Amino acid sequence: MRALSKILLAGLLLALAACVSSRPPVEEVVTMHQETIPGNWPREAVDRLVPLGGQSAAASQPRRSEPARPPIAEHDRLGTRWGEEIRSPIRFVRLVRFWPDRPEVQVTIRYDGRRSAAMGPVSTSRSLAVSDGAVEFSVLNARGRPLQLTPTTGGDLRLQGRSGDLYRLAFANRGRRTVEVVATVDGLDVLNGRPGTIANRGYVVRPGDMLVIEGFRRSEDEVAAFRFSAPEDAYAANTPQGDPRNIGVIGVALFTLDDPANEIVAASPRPFPADAPRGPRFAPPPTP
Known about the structure:
Order of helices and strands: EEEHEEEEEEEEEEEEEEEH
Radius of gyration: 19 Å
Number of helices: 2
Structural class: mainly beta
Helix content: under 10%
Number of strands: 18
Distance between the termini: 30 Å
Number of domains: 1
């Protein structure tokens, strides 16, 4: 049985292993062990990007092509609270994006407590096309069963939740290249709890593996479970980094990564792989 795998990415500038504890985590989980890499994006790159799946002070106007949404009754509104601790250890990896500021896929999922009024085919998963394949996205309940995702007229997906229920974001990589998943819940990055942008680094899922994001990361060893809640109890309503306007939305962005391990799958040797992460300064002896 294939083990679940979570990976968190590093930034553009990578530190030595000794510096890991002083940098923000970027992660991966393999079976019961995860990887993380240190690093940050340049400040100028962050400044010109808007929050993923939410609103920014500079760009809070709705998209012109998207029709006005009917108002949601107050009793149907939902947020996501900071739930119970779940063990989820991480370790660092060093990988870079092929296109740093351009996601291959960006999806918005809006959730509330209303019964679904289908605007298109209802499904329990969504195939997201990326280079050399696709990533299958679904939202799982506490029993691991996928919840229904309904298309909306504006091109988003809609999810029906119930206050108190636990949920998880699942990504199965069906392609041939490693993919990075940057995710936000209620406008907050699931890794650092700050307003989401595509400049943040995310989890990594390798070809054939499955990533399950179970909650907001609280340390290198644990996450706080995602649980639907009343808007006033949501994490975004109880942290200075949150914005109540963004409660009720999940954002997902996917990037293709330059992972040397993919060469085994792609069978495409490169004589001068200068874009791969740098190794030791000198040639190491062969492995016995």
